[in-house]
Amino acid sequence: MKRKMSLILFCTLIVLMVGGNPAADVSAGNSVFTYEGRLAENGNPENSAGQYTLRLASQEPTPNPKDLPATSEGSIPLSEFPGGGRSDHNHLGQTWTGSEPLVINGAYGEPWNAPLVLSNDSGHGLRILNAGAAGVIVDSATFNGFRVVSAGTNGLRVDSATNGLWVGNAGVLGVGVDYAKEVAYWVHKVDGSALWVDDAGGQAIGVGSAGQSGLLVVSAGDHGLHVQNAGIDGVAVDYAGDNGLYVGNAGGNGVAVDSATYQGLYVGSAGDNGLYVANSGNNGVAVVSANNAGLWVGFAGGSGLHVASAGADGVHVDSAGGYAGWFGGSIYARDGCVGCTITVFGVNAGNTALQPGDIVSIQGLLPSQFAGVATLMQVKAAENGETVIGVVQGWAEVSSGADSQQGKSEERLVPRQGMVEPGQYVTIIIYGPAQVKASALSGPLSAGTRLTLGDDGGVRTLKTTEVNGVQIGESASTIGIALEEPGDNELIWVLVNPQ
After folding, report:
1. Is the pLDDT of residue 348 over 90?
2. pTM for the model
3. Which DSSP string corresponds to 160-189?
4. Spatial strand order in the sheet of 255-260
5. Domain spans of the chain?
């Protein structure tokens, strides 16, 4: 590269320390030359006689980026620009235009661990006025896809875009806001999904603390929030002064989590609603699979979950490793509960294994150390003369979960399908439709028949006796009412209601 040499005069009252590239320095010596001209110090004429320090420096003209050598990726090394790769320049009021991107390559360590650091005491950290496609896209990140440690107003705000924020793959956190004075994530209007995370090794979307809503989506053409896979929680909001998650309108699902290793949706504490979905074209909340709770709300000043309107299901959970929903208090259903049963937990106190559909009798109670379970029923296979309390649904597994209010781990019992060995925890249906073992000794049995316990442990019809021409029903405790006639299967559907 051609270099233009120029003479630069530095007038000082003390000896200057000359720094920079040693190859460009001129060492002090006793050479003498004549200089004719006027000296000025701080803009004022300097007429005093004395010794002055001169420095010869090499000055480069500003290069055209197209003339600079490009790397194999097509980017230009920073070291080829004026300053030799130094990063202590002030560039104010500059506008970069053109079709070539700004590419920053390197390994950036402490203190910032980042190639781009922005600080603004009075405005936004990063603002994108217009993007033809995605406003922010992260294809892959070893740790966090997008993280905001602290924001005076919103951690992330998108006024209009196809997708608000898209993270392809993140080793730890997909999208995270540690603290925001107002809304952690604010998405006004997007044609696609407001927040979309394909895969995250930890939490897909996380909010540490927000003065107002944790996540606020005004309108989304597709999903309000969509998480395909999360190594921990799909969406987690530790604290929100207002709503934990708010979705005003979504063309698809309000919130959709395809798979989460732990909770599908987690809200530690919310000043108003834990999750509020005003309107969605499909499901208000959809969790396809979660190994623990599909939706967990620790505390909410208003509703834990509020869905104003949904084109399909208000809340839809296909599969959950724990509970699809965990409720610490009572549940209210205005228009009924379809397919609901009331179940309790117990221990198989008998000497034989219990199968789903077996009728059990109560033997006593045991104290419980499990969350949400006050006592455990001691049960065994029922025999004639014993008080029947319900029907075996399956066994119960001990699962560990997090108590968000106490900040410690707790153990829960989770219903599972299958045989119950002696001493194992059991799930018992005490009310609702269930498949019950029918007695082989039962007489004619049809839908609507009241059932009691047979000699072989199955259900049978109540016997009647004729006395003086009057049919008198058997005085025996009933288990429920048959909903169908027996078929090839030894199990029949019964509306269980022990009396």
Report:
1. yes
2. 0.59
3. EESSSEEEEEESS-SEEEEEESS-SEEEEE
4. 136-141, 165-170, 195-200, 225-230, 255-260, 285-290, 315-320
5. 1-64, 135-320, 342-432, 436-496
